[in-house]
Amino acid sequence: MLEHIDWLGIGALIHLALAIGVVLRVLQSQRNASVAIAWLAILFALPFIGILLYLLLGETTLGRKYQSRNQQIRALLGAVDFAHADTPLPSAYQGVSRIGTAWTGFHAFYADKARLIDTPDDIFDALIDDINNANTMILMEFYIIHAKGRVLEVLTALENAAQRGVECHILADGVGSVEFFQKHAKTLANTGIYVHESLPVGLFKTLFKRVDLRNHRKIVAIDDKVGYTGSFNLVDPRYFKQDKGFGQWIDMMMRLEDHRTNGVIAALSAIVATDIGAENDKNLTVLTERFHDYTKKLYRLGEIGADGKLTGTPSKTVPIMRIASSLPAVRDVVVQPIPSAPQMTAHVIHSTLVSVIHRANQSVWITTPYFVPDDALLSALTCAAKRGVEVVLIVPKVVDSFLVRHASYAFFEELIEAGVVIAQFGDGLLHTKSVVIDEEYCLFGTVNMDMRSFYLNMEFSLAIYTKPLVMQVLGCQKAYFERADVVGLATWQSRSWGQKLLDNSIRLFGALL
């Protein structure tokens, strides 16, 4: 009798039943139409595999326990009286500032000084000097830590700081920094540095939370007086991915200095401490105790480690590209921290970005390594260009993701036809993420112009309201532009039919990239 059973037909019926169930789930849970359509295409294009992919990657959940711990910490921080700026913001940006405040709790802050740093060596020099002068606490949070080159000097400075009694904490993403945890974390832990793994992955964990949601933040806070953020991972570009053929990664960091109690640096500390405390119950308990016992100072939170030693040699020597020499510090600036995370801050940065582009009157300048917009962002950019706003998009000529590269290409023709100027930077992988509006407002930080940054990853942006500092960022953007090639409409339209088909096919799944 078994030889008469139509196993293929039974398999098809099982797949159809499962697929219908998942389709109903997609329609119920996916609010973004582009995301829903992309998943529906995958479900029926890849029998069974598509269902498995959706179960593993389809919904943005960090896990119920993680969310619960995060909410408890945010409730504690709600009692902190942060020293927000008391000067009204420009009327054009008061509304967009309220978007950030509504979802993150952070208003705009004063900072005594802000310095834009545009080269790796200057970043390393400043960071090492600040670590060497630290007295009480160092909190560092990075997506990637690559322990080679000058990064070793940073880690040595942290070891020395820990030995003289400074509490030092490193939080690194479990996927982005997997080699760091495998080879170096235990050595650092043995010197007194507290090393924490953000969003660790594992087979069992995939059953309860989506493992491709990553902590993409880059934040340093020292003594509640000095802070850093930007696109720069803790890597030496001369040693990082030099075998991939993309050249050195080009980044910028912002160094903030402020001496107010519970000022902007305390806010950065709170963000890192929240991320550490949310990782496990032990960290949450210790953070809660110290919150009450030490008048809301955020200190020792836990530990984690793995075997390894600090070694490394460069794959090749490449000269560092300097964009702007010795940018001066700007005093008395107003900035607003905007941390984002799935399920916890809605789509705060996406909403902020689309809002400021729609209200732009003169110019919109954007630098981003990854550009895969959704309909709302695409509409904002094209509408701005059509109403006469100067819209300039600067992207790398080649990026390290095949899918993102071709999905991005599929949008170029529509943007150029609308009047957007697209320039491809060829002197390395341009990794800086910055947006400048009308030469008076800036978003600066870790956020790429793609759906992963807007909807999936934990990210951080700094809104800047002080024009001299905004103009420094714009100056760096224009320096990138001078080294880039503008994409011509005729040239882009002359690409082969096969190239266009590939780009447009991958674009269908852009909402998932």
From TrEMBL:
Query: Which Gene Ontology MF annotations are present?
Result: cardiolipin synthase activity
Q: Which SUPFAM superfamilies match?
A: Phospholipase D/nuclease
Compartment(s): Cell membrane
Q: Name one Pfam family in it.
A: PLDc_2
Membrane topology (UniProt): Multi-pass membrane protein
Concerning SMART domains, the annotation shows: PLDc
Q: Using the record's annotation, list all stretches that form the PLD phosphodiesterase domain.
A: 211-238, 426-453
Please tell me whether the keyword Transmembrane helix is annotated for this protein: yes
Which keywords, in A-to-Z order, does the entry hold? Cell membrane, Membrane, Transmembrane, Transmembrane helix
- In its UniProt record, which GO terms are filed under biological process? cardiolipin biosynthetic process
Taxonomically, which superkingdom? Bacteria
What broad class describes the main subcellular location of this protein? Answer: membrane
TM region positions: 7-27, 33-57
Q: Name one GO cellular component term.
A: plasma membrane
Q: What is this protein called?
A: Cardiolipin synthase
